[in-house]
Structures are given as C-alpha cells and as structure tokens.
Amino acid sequence: MSHSVAILVKDKKEAIEVINAYAPEHLILALEDAAEVARQIANAGSVFLGNYTPESVGDYASGTNHTPPNLRLRPRV
Question: Phi and psi (nearest 5°) for 9?
Fold first, then answer.
C-alpha cells in the first residue's frame, strides 16, 4: 500500500481522460452507466463492467496466469 496513489477527478469526462492516458491493465467500471463509459475507453487491457464483474473472476475465466494455486499444488520455486 505504500506505493499506492489515489487520483481525484472532477467528473466522468476527466476520469475517462485519465484512464485513457494511464492505460490500466485492469479497469473496473462500477457505474450505473458502465457500458456508456466503456465505449469511451480507448486504452485499457481488460475492462469489467458493473458491480458483479470482479477482476479475479475475469482472470480465472480467461485462464490467465493470475489463477491462484489451490491445495498446495503450486509449483515450488
């Protein structure tokens, strides 16, 4: 958490500008008009729409390397 930051914006227009400039790998749009805002996002890896689309579930469903190990079956390094 010591390397985390919060970016405060004045409105959705400015938020969209920041998002497109930052180009996040994962973006969760927990908004009532998430689909409308998503159409304005040009630079983001995975975009998750609404309150019931957590990034962890998206990664699990797509089979990316973010799937956590279970039952101690992870590779030993």
Answer: -125, 160
Taking the model in full, what pTM does it have?
Answer: 0.73
Structure tokens at 66: 């973010």
Q: What is the pLDDT of residues 25-46, one digit of tens each?
A: 889 999 999 999 999 999 998 8
26 is catalytic: yes
Give the 3-state secondary structure of residue 15.
Answer: helix
Q: Is 25 a catalytic residue?
A: yes
Q: What is the pLDDT of residues 45-72, one digit of tens each?
A: 889 999 988 887 777 777 665 555 555 5
Structure tokens at 51: 């309150």
Question: Pick the catalytic residue: 3, 25, 32, 66?
Answer: 25
Q: Where are the alpha helices (DSSP H) in 1-77?
A: 12-22, 34-38, 55-62
How many whole angstroms separate alpha carbon 41 and alpha carbon 19? Answer: 7
